[in-house]
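Milestone 3.1: sequence recovery, worked example.
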């Protein structure tokens, strides 16, 4: 039996560079894992089985966890069956990478159960066929990601920030938001300069997908303004939405009247270990 946490991520900046011939968008983004997390337990058993605390999460082969199991089995030729339990806390369709993190955690767990048969970089490249965000979770937790998001470059850890994650009741489907994206929404910045800004204490938080998400769900723009009016210095949509992360250094702001609210902070991983958390999520 092995029990691991599966953390959420946010995008501290997300720039879309152009649309590629394969239909994906070339991007540059600084990804950061946060302490908001799911918990996954793995036990060898007679047949593959996935259970989840949230009845809204599909537990059939469409779940990225079972995709990861099948991929790992195919890659290694190992014969095994596994029972997996998912304790869900990360909201879905939020841009927080919950499903991708679950898939990455599954690949790491299976590999650990088989004495680290594959190196982490191979797990990351296996993960890229499940989803563009999966390889990121094999970084140290702070990474500059390019390509369709799957090319990861570890960067120095950033000073910790206290964050609030706020999500409205509605979720957003990633393909729809990329479809809505117009190239005129792309910020004309040098992403390497933006990255250096974060690394030298001059962060520039932006997300080129916000206008596309605001078209899909106009209430999101209102929510962003409401959060800014509460006094947050930074309010930014994560990934393709619909969650925002909010930062305020000076005072605690009361925002308990939104659909999903969670206080969190940055999380990083030490080499050869998966993400670990000391405090238990409330
Ligand atoms: O890679 P993933 O399966 O997570 O992507 C889901 C969808 O989001 C893709 O099918 C594509 O429509 C869109 N996408 C994109 N550009 C990216 C990542 C995702 O257009 N860099």
């Amino acid at each position: 039996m092995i029990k691991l946490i599966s953390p959420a991520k946010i995008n501290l900046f997300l720039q879309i560079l152009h649309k590629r011939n394969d239909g994906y968008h070339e991007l540059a983004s600084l990804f950061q894992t946060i302490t908001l997390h799911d918990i996954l337990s793995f036990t060898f058993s007679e047949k593959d089985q996935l259970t989840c605390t949230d009845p809204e999460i599909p537990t059939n082969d469409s779940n990225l966890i079972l995709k990861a199991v099948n991929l790992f089995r195919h890659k290694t030729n190992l014969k095994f069956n596994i029972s997996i339990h998912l304790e869900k806390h990360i909201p879905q369709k939020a841009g927080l990478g919950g499903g991708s993190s679950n898939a990455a955690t599954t690949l790491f767990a299976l590999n650990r159960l088989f004495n680290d048969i594959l190196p982490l970089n191979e797990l990351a490249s296996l993960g890229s066929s499940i989803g563009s965000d999966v390889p990121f979770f094999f970084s140290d937790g702070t990474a500059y990601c390019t390509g369709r998001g799957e090319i990861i470059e570890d960067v120095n850890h950033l000073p910790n920030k206290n964050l609030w994650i706020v999500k409205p009741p509605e979720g957003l489907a990633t393909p729809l938001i990329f479809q809505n994206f117009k190239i005129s929404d792309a910020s004309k910045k040098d992403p390497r300069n933006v990255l250096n800004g974060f690394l030298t204490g001059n962060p520039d938080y932006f997300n080129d997908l916000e206008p596309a998400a605001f078209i899909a769900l106009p209430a999101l723009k209102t929510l962003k303004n409401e959060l800014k009016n509460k006094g947050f210095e930074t309010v930014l949509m994560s990934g393709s939405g619909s969650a925002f992360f909010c930062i305020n250094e000076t005072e605690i702001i009361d925002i308990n009247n939104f659909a999903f609210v969670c206080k969190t902070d940055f999380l990083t991983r030490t080499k050869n270990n998966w993400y670990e958390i000391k405090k238990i999520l409330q």
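The chain has seven helices and eleven strands. The chain has a mean pLDDT of 94.
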